[in-house]
Amino acid sequence: MSANKVTLSYLAPFSFKYYRRFGYEQVFNHLQYSLDNKNIPAFRPRVNQGHVTRGKMKDHLPEVVQIYEQTSKNGLMGGLLRDMWWWDYLPLKNKWLTGVYYDEEEQVSGYVIYELTQEQLVVKEMIYATNTAFEHLLSFIFNHKNSVRKFIFDSPDPTYHGSLLSEPYVLDARVVPYMMVRIVDIKDFLLRYPYVKKDFEPFVFGIEDQNLPQNSGLWELSSKKGMVKVNKLSDLAADYPEKITIQELTKALFGTEKMKTIVMEGKADLSFETATLVDDILVNEPPKLVDYF
Known about the structure:
Blueprint: E1 8-11, H1 16-20, E2 25-26, E3 29-36, E4 51-56, H2 61-72, H3 84-93, E5 97-102, E6 108-116, E7 120-128, H4 131-142, E8 150-155, E9 172-177, E10 180-183, H5 186-192, E11 200-208, E12 217-224, E13 227-234, E14 243-245, H6 246-253, H7 259-264, H8 272-281
Parallel strand pairs: 7-8, 11-14
Antiparallel strand pairs: 1-10, 2-10, 3-8, 3-9, 4-5, 5-6, 6-7, 11-12, 12-13
């Protein structure tokens, strides 16, 4: 991958321990909610406008692709920009159904992709551009409560949202480890990273990468008016007091863990001041990935 100028690699592991040997790290988690049909709350959209049309995913691809690409312009938090071949592949691989929400002007502003069996309904993906679209799609899903016994929401957002229910005790929620990430070219990745600050003073830290020596060394990072500079000062980092492995750095860069947490847990040799500086410039929201491959 390095020889082919690949910057970033995602991987679905059969064993997390095995692929950590190659510099991959687990950064994506899903939060899977499970709710019995008897506990589905009475719910109606506050705005009674628009409608949801259901059907097979393959029959609604144009509408689904449209709203996905529209919302992806605001950022995907680690998700994929899907090529058309991937969209065509998804309904071939899976027996998925869709509910597409059209607003009062017949414009697509949301969709839900789900799997339906005799026993349960599993929500695979829900994308919406407005809160009205979200409420109508949720109502559409809940309207299946007389058809199935259980509802499962497979959410790529690992942040708990059970408080949306008036009685969260009826909801089971569990974190499911998902995909792994490997930063192949750390310099290119740091140059293209969406820092939350346009200006920060230069600071130096060491990176240790046992598999890709070109990533190992002392690195200087700075930004002025949004112009990021990444300079490698030395190939050696072992004797430098401020250093971190490529895997722990990956978790911080992706927002899976804050750098201060990584340091407090003894997983990186960085000062509290450096860790605070890093947290101030990095995206601190957890990453979200739906696509599994």
